[in-house]
Amino acid sequence: MKNSHSGREPIARIVKRGEPSFRLKVVVRACAVLLALLLDAGFIYFVTGLNPVDVYVTMFNGTFGTLMRFQWALRDFASLLLIGVALAPAFKMRFWNTGAEGQVLMGGLASAFVMIRFGGIVPSGLLFTMMLLMSVAAGALWGVIPAFFKAHFSTNETLFTLMMNYVAIQIVASCVTVWRGQASGLGKLNTKTKAGWFPQIWGQRSTINVILVVVFVFAMFLYLRYSKHGYEISVVGESQNTARYAGIHVGKVIIRTMILSGALCGLTGFLIVAGRDQTISVNTAGGDGFTAIIVAWLAKFNTFYMALISFLLIFLNKGAGEIASAYNLNSYAADIIEGIILFCILGSEFFIRYRLVFGGTKGKEALR
Amino acid sequence: MNNAVEFRNITKIFYKVVANKDISMQVHAGEILSLLGENGSGKTTLMNMLSGIYYPDGGEIYVNGKKADIRSPGDAYALGIGMVHQHFKLIDVFTAVENIALVMDRSSRFNLKQVYEKAREICSRYDFQIDLNQKVYRMSVSQKQTLEIIKVLFQGASILILDEPTAVLTPQETEKLFKVLRIMRDEGKTVIIITHKLHEVMEISDRVAILRKGIYVGSVRTAETNESMLTEMMVGEKVSLNIDRPLTDEKHLRLSVRDLNVVNPEGIPVLQDLCFDVFSGEILGVAGISGNGQKELLETIAGLVKPRTGSSIIYYPDDDRDSTAQELIGKDPKTIRDMGIHLSFVPEDRLGMGLVGNMGMIDNMMLKSYTRGTGPIADRKAPKRLAVQIRDRLHVVTPSVTAPVRTLSGGNVQKVLVGREIAAAPSVLMTAYAVRGLDINTSYTIYHLLNEQKQRGVAIIYVGEDLDVLLELCDRILVLCGGKFNGVVRAERTTKEELGLLMTKMADDSKEGGKKA
Fold first, then answer.
1. Three-class secondary structure of residue B202 per DSSP
2. Under an 8 A CB cutoff, do B332 and A247 touch?
3. Domain interval for residue A284
């Protein structure tokens, strides 16, 4: 009797933890990183035949090898993070804005247009102001269109914002074709006058981007946590019924928040054009609009966590690129190394929320 | 006596909460057993282990004398155990037969006609009035429940578990259900009915088993007990079961509802030509089968639902002078608040409308006050004071005023909500199913709070489902039937049967208007 029943008991069960302590989170994540490094070491050693330690050093150097690499990493970090910050209010409101890519592109396009049309004609201060305002307006417009339809006709915002990306990409592609004329590519704009190019600070034009993104990380955090608007966004996100019950005009909040989200994406477009690319193309956003969705989700819409996660993603990305070029590896191999690390870190979230209980179901053990 | 089911030292733990602790009890074959206990006492958890939804963390279950390892509802079916859950597990767009076919034995061939024949046989045996070809979404709650019972019988269950089956039924429908349960018992089936309504326990069951806070208190033969003894076993202390109805002297008109017509988003009228008055210093009960316009009525007064043109709700601030009267129709909650009218509303859906489940007490207090003050920053100091005050005064059990309210027990959630609404010093207080799912002590706390407000001169609208409570607590009772006004009765001068009849039959025509869901 005893034997027959123990044989049919489940091998392991998943049990939910309560609020995980800070220490537990740190330990679990540290274990995840260690496990990732071990798995990667195995992969590197057995598949590529390289020395894992050397590969890790190279990877580290991808971001920290030289000052310039570090600055470039920071530059890319700034655009990714700023888009993440832009998504924060929309996501907090449970408005799944998957259209950041398009909103960034429209902002960048507006900047490029101002550079081409007014570069060298108006004074530089005025030019930057115009670029800024136009970009913000363009991004906001691209964000508010789906919001309007959501607020008034309950359309699905995920699909709507996603489709708007493709519209934006086509508009940018058309403009680039018109502007480049007979040339094979658009190239950098205003190369002679450098009108609309951010000044170099510490050797980089993107320094302004980095400074601004730090400001926005703090500002967005405070806005969401302490302002009346932030409170309304939380309530609408949690329950539209409760929001209406409390007298919050749900449609108004959706539209206002998406104007903000789109405007910040537009601003990112401006910063990329003025501080990094000095030109516009369909690759200006470079997929960051989508990567930022992952950033915002993983950070649970906390802008400080977003900074950490953005940095991790950029670090892995730069590291993978560095490995691929340094060892002449197939880029897929570098991607696998990057993927294993991400998998372990994301997978560890499961063990923060749940634990596995092995073996019997005796009351004593369960009561412990 | 044969035991249909025997629990031995059953323990079930959810994270740190012990839902069932070391429960050992028997269910005799061929009896109707009431499983009695307050909310959160572990009744449903225990039954879910018998029906294969949960797996015990400790202990053993014996079915018909044999040790059973029930790891899925399929295992339970195989043992002849069927459960009718409180929230029906039906597919709305399927017909009754199609839903029944879902529980067919997987190995047998799919033959809808055969299913239909067998189901019809069951219907005629138990005298179920149901159209088996009707789609579920067109059914009334009571029809859905009948369908669930047919499903269980179809599987050939000999042990039936019903989780709070009467919560959604009128007295007449309850009577019908009980008749069916008695037939089943006489056929030798075992019936377990989960409930916390004492008079029903007394009426239907042969034996009562009582749980308190996850622990098995004991069982008694129904014939040898009474309601106050059961209450004592259930609560663990003596409780007076009388509800006060204090008298108030000054009553004047507070709300006057005229020609209220509301159409739901699908275009179906949910309230038709409703006319009634609400006075200060009284509790006006609203009775009706659930889904007969109660929700829309309160939400319309609160400014959340727009009625059709021609409807009118006049609010009288001080006395019934026309000069100060204000029309509420066409104004949203914020506008009404800005007009200086304190309308408080405790909605049916506490965590989905009245509160934000993921927020703490403080942030929930802010729902009604966050716009106060100039500047973009929301004030959290006053809400914090209010949260602490409500926690202390109403004895809200919470780890902290910032802990998400969804983690609190149902009773504490309701205390938070009612506390906030009363703190706004309302002149009209509307409550929908204010004590649904609350334990006896908390229910009495709520009745007491309502009476306190009544004595302060507040006009209270109390939408309720327990007719006994409506009769004891309210001054007058408005009866809705199919979204139509079907009379206002004085609570002292009416009976439960009369109310039940008014809820299901329009006074002036014999059509069954109330059956429409």
1. helix
2. yes
3. 78-306
